[in-house]
Specification:
about 120 residues, alpha/beta, SHC Adaptor Protein, six-stranded mixed beta sheet, 6 strands, about 20% helix, 1-phosphatidylinositol-3-kinase regulator activity, SH2 domain-containing protein, PI3kinase_P85_cSH2, SH2 domain
């Protein structure tokens, strides 16, 4: 039988309210992600002006990486500033590991922090 499950998971990533937290301190992000499954993530404004931060659970621990906004787009590092929006970046890394940018981040952005628990 056809399952809606995969489609529903993609839809959550399309809904920025499930993962974009706006102004949020690093400590608040860590509290929100504490005890969550690996791959649970949120995006917030970074203290660095014009940048954002991605907070993601890896091996039960919350890690943070900067998302830069450049004239060519959003991304974690050269030459990956390709994404026209934070949502495009999130959709790409939903299925792609962050390990290419940081050896400590062998994880993809699987679960938006505010997504309802999957049944």
């Amino acid at each position: 039988p056809y399952s809606m499950r995969d489609g529903e998971e993609d839809l959550l990533h399309h809904d920025e309210s499930t993962w974009y937290m706006g102004k949020m301190k690093r400590e608040q992000a860590e509290e929100m992600l504490a005890g969550k499954a690996d791959g649970t993530f949120l995006i917030r404004e970074s203290r660095q002006k014009g940048c954002y931060a991605c907070s993601v659970v890896v091996d039960g621990d919350t890690k943070h990486c900067v998302i830069y906004k450049t004239t060519t787009g959003y991304g974690f590092a050269e030459p990956y500033y390709l994404y026209a929006s934070l949502k495009e970046l999130v959709l790409h890394y939903q299925h792609t590991s962050l390990v290419q940018h940081n050896d400590a981040l062998n994880v993809s952005l699987s679960y938006p922090v505010l997504a309802p628990p999957s049944r």
